[in-house]
Amino acid sequence: MGTIVMAGAAVLVVLGFGNHLYWLAAAAVLFLYLRYGRAEVSTSSGRPSSGGSMPSDYRSYRDRRDKQAKWERRYRRERPFESRRQEREKSK
């Protein structure tokens, strides 16, 4: 994808010697690619975009998991008989 965008920008720059609006179009294409195109590729590869930070997907997953575990602990603490009955049914 990046080579296509770079080639297109190079063509627009060459055409820009005849009409300067093509230079503006090349700048806009490069700006949009750097702003939106590369960020999309880096997040879809599964690697964090910055050095040591976790991706927001994993952070939100971990937050949901921790919140669910907290509610399950609270449920077991507040309803011990019901939670034991559910565990017995699960083990059958």
Main attributes of the structure:
92 residues; 79% helix; mainly alpha
Description of the molecule:
The chain has helices at residues 2-15, 21-44, 56-78, 80-91. The protein contains 4 helices and no strands.
Describe this structure in a few short sentences.
The chain is mostly helical.
Question: Which helices and strands occur, and which strands form pairs?
Answer:
Layout lengths: L1 H14 L5 H24 L11 H23 L1 H12 L1
Mean pLDDT: 81
Q: What fraction strand? A: under 5%
Count of individual beta strands: 0
Poorly predicted runs are: none
Q: Span from first to last CA?
A: 54 Å
**Fraction of helical residues:** over 70%
Shape: rod-shaped
Quaternary structure? single chain
As a whole number of angstroms, the C-alpha radius of gyration is 27 Å
Structural class: mainly alpha
H/E series, N to C?
A: HHHH
Specify the biggest β-sheet.
none
